[in-house]
Write a structure and sequence with these properties.
Layout (H helix, E strand, L loop, with lengths): L8 E7 L2 E8 L2 E8 L9 H13 L1 E6 L16 H15 L4 E6 L1 H15 L5 E7 L5 H6 L5 H10 L1 E4 L8 E4 H7 L15 E6 L7 H10 L5 E6 L9 H12 L3
Parallel strand pairs: 3-4, 3-5, 5-6, 6-9, 9-10
Antiparallel strand pairs: 1-2, 2-4, 7-8
Helix pairs in contact: 2-3
Length: 256
């Protein structure tokens, strides 16, 4: 268990009947807004590192757990990309003010891009920048469905679920038909789009979960934005080594 961060407060926000756990540090703008990955939580190495970094600088920092993750309520098997995006927007509206740098890790990179698009659609211009770590836009389709063998696809279509083995824990990930079908409503790759702020991408060349070529597809879609893509030759998916954390804070610092 990590030591408490001075000044950080814990709270919950009700989002459609689900208690979303939030940790927030008050401070100066631009604030940092953390979006975690699939089946990860806000106490992970990168989220914790950024929170302590922000606190030391006197900057605001907000992190939270999606429903079905960490300290938040709700069942993971009932979750979808739409639900996680709505929770991210609700926490962003409730817990942040002023300009924000949004940091998204893996699935959080997809949510960050969708959040940016949703904010732009309603005329908000509070995003100072996006920092994406091994971003996984469209992962339910490109990195799951398209790679599943026919028997797995048939199992998902007939039974509604598949227990996917993982290297990150003893329990398999439950992949539902609803997750796959809902993900198709939010696909981004293949069509140019703009987020309207600088984007910094950190990607490991040895990432076995999100290949670097996948992240490069995102770069080609963000043709109108200021994008810097950093490929870490010996980096894996987590990018949580001390040298990786230093690269992360350098990327964030360059935007604040």
């Amino acid at each position: 268990m990590t030591e408490p961060i001075p000044g950080e407060t814990a709270s919950t926000l009700d989002v459609d009947g689900r208690a979303i756990a939030i940790r927030a540090i008050p401070g100066a703008a631009p604030g940092l807004f953390w979006l975690g990955g699939f089946k990860s939580d806000m106490t992970g190495t990168k989220a914790e590192h950024l929170a302590r970094w922000a606190q030391a600088r006197g900057q605001a920092n907000v992190r939270f757990d999606y429903s079905g993750h960490g300290a938040s309520g709700g069942a993971f098997e009932e979750s979808t990309v739409s639900r996680w995006l709505n929770e991210g927007l609700a926490v962003f509206d409730h817990a942040t003010s002023g300009e924000q740098v949004v940091i998204g890790s893996s699935m959080g990179g997809w949510i960050a891009l969708l959040l940016a698009r949703a904010l732009a659609a309603r005329g908000e211009k509070r995003l100072k920048g996006l920092v994406l770590v091994a971003p996984a836009p469209d992962f339910t389709e490109a990195l799951m469905w398209d790679k599943f063998p026919p028997p797995v696809r048939e199992l998902i279509e007939t039974s509604g679920r598949f227990l996917k083995p993982t290297l990150y824990g003893e329990d398999p990930y439950v992949i539902t038909r609803e997750l796959i079908e809902d993900g198709r409503r939010h696909l981004l790759l293949g069509t140019p789009f703009a987020v309207g702020c600088p984007v910094r991408i950190l990607q490991g060349a040895r990432d076995e979960d999100v290949p670097w070529e996948h992240a490069m597809r995102l770069v080609s879609c963000l043709a109108e934005d200021d994008v810097v893509f950093s490929l870490i030759k010996d980096g894996d998916h987590r990018l949580s080594r001390p040298e990786d954390l230093e690269r992360l804070t350098e990327a964030v610092e360059g935007l604040v």
